[in-house]
Amino acid sequence: DEILSLLETEHGLSPIVVKTWIKPLKLYSVEGKKLYFAVDDSMGSRAIDFINKKMYDMFLVTSIKEVLDDDSIEIVIDVESNLNKTSKEEVTKEEYNEAITKSNLYPKYTFDTFVVGESNKLAHATCLAVADSPGLDKFNPLFLYGGAGLGKTHLMQSIAHYILQHNKNMKVLYVPSNKFTNEIVEAIKKNKTDEFREKYRTVDVLLIDDIQYLIGKESTQQEFFDTFNALHDEGKQIILSSDKPPKEIKTLEERFRSRFEWGVPIDIHAPDYETRMAILKNKVEMNGYKNISDNILEYIANNVTYNVRELEGALNKISVYAELGNITITEDLAKNILKDMISKETNVTITPDLIINTVSEHLNISVDDIKSSKRSQDVANARQISMYLCRKFTTKGLKSIGDVFGGKDHSTVLSNINKVDKRIESDPEYAETIDVIIKKLSPHS
Ligand code: ADP
Ligand code: MG
Fold first, then answer.
1. How far apart are the CA of 307 and the centre of ligand 1, in A?
2. Which of 59, 65, 92, 311 has minimal Cβ neighbours within 10 Å of its Cβ?
């Protein structure tokens, strides 16, 4: 009604015209930003000619854009029998397979194989909505974040699959962010930014995975955001994933970071027990695993709790034993097989010693040196990072942290910690190193 009245008030169409030509149009279907209208059969194609000639379709699309407050709406007006043909674009199996390869997708990461539970319900529903109508402002960009192995890549690729299954001519491209960065760097170096732009700015849907690794110089970030803006301006769908929410991606400049929050960032949580069981059962069924009873699945679901990838890993390991030995797995056997994985899973408390050992191992500086007063750059660096992590992951105060490092006073500790804080802000590679150390310390954080 709003649209119809705009046609009269804004565009000066007479009530008779609106009533005769526009009102009888039937909203036939909505695909992404395309609205298909069917003309009444009794009016047939003559009506379409008339509507086009008088540019009523132009008026209509302007009014719709205004009412929906979306500038990239398109409309198609046709007789219903034609719409039956064009709007539901049949995608053949061959076309789909070819498109998957072109788009860089794993064949198995589809909605069909994704198990939905409490922990990922919202993310799943949002992804479905985006898959159904790519490019809507509300979810552009779609930003998915969550810990490693929780299904980000799987979900984002599901959207891509869905779009390819339902749209013949959509160009969809998936790229891990490090590959994307490399391509930008190469393009700039070889003066081939034109080719780069041709490749990335002509897609309808762009998926960039693990955006936290999108680090680099000003010019790299700039090129990325030019791409981002170009696509966004045209209402093309952008889908991003990261292990953390936008504001915590310290390696990106603020003006860039804030753009990721244009759409709603969507959080994927670690799966709860029911979801873990459902994933395991689904996998058993898909792979036709035999000799693995429910109580073994329960044992896995109870003990491997943080990460779907590890959950799958545990099940695979068990299944190998079950198949090779053609034996039924008992709980004791399962316990034994999964020994390594599960001891890693139990929550370890992070102590200064654990931190120093981990830093020592990662940076290849001895524990004694870290605790000493040596000032060589490598050693001082390892010590600073250790202090920083002690502050972050233990409840110890500055003074007792100082004690761990051979009795440094609290102001020394504080200034060391501050140095790390500063450098994290300005040096992406350094921030990354610390991230990796943190992952080693606490694989589930
Ligand atoms: P991320 O990208 O978040 O690190 P992935 O998408 O690679 O995680 O998921 C890790 C593995 O777990 C993949 O094999 C994926 O298929 C599987 N997986 C994750 N979540 C689910 C789920 N809800 N249902 C089925 N499989 C899942
Ligand atoms: Mg991933």
1. 8
2. 92
Helix (H, G, I), strand (E, B) or coil at 267: strand
Average pLDDT, the chain: 87
Ligand 1 pocket list (CB less than 6 A): 113-115, 120, 146, 148-154, 279, 308-309, 312
SS3 437: helix
Ligand number with the minimum distance to the CA of 117: 1
Give distance in angstroms: CA of 279 to centre of ligand 1.
Answer: 10
State the residue for tokens 């909203």: 27
Q: Given the DSSP bridges, would you call strands 265-267 and 172-176 parallel, antiparallel or unpaired? A: unpaired
- Confidence tier at 141 by pLDDT (50, 70, 90): very high
Tokens of 376: 């060589």
Which ligand sits closest to the CA of 150?
1
DSSP per-residue codes, 54-83: TTHHHHHHHHHHHHHT-TT-EEEEEEHHHH
Residue 42 in tokens? 């009794």
Q: What are phi and psi of 174, to 5 degrees?
A: -105, 135
Dist CA 125 CA 35 (whole Å) = 22
**CB under 8 Å to 399, separation ≥6 — which residues?**
409, 410, 413
Determine the distance from the C-alpha atom of residue 61 to the mean position of all C-alpha atoms in its chain, rounded to a whole number.
33
Whole-model pTM: value is: 0.64
Tell me the C-alpha distance between 83 and 41, whole Å.
12
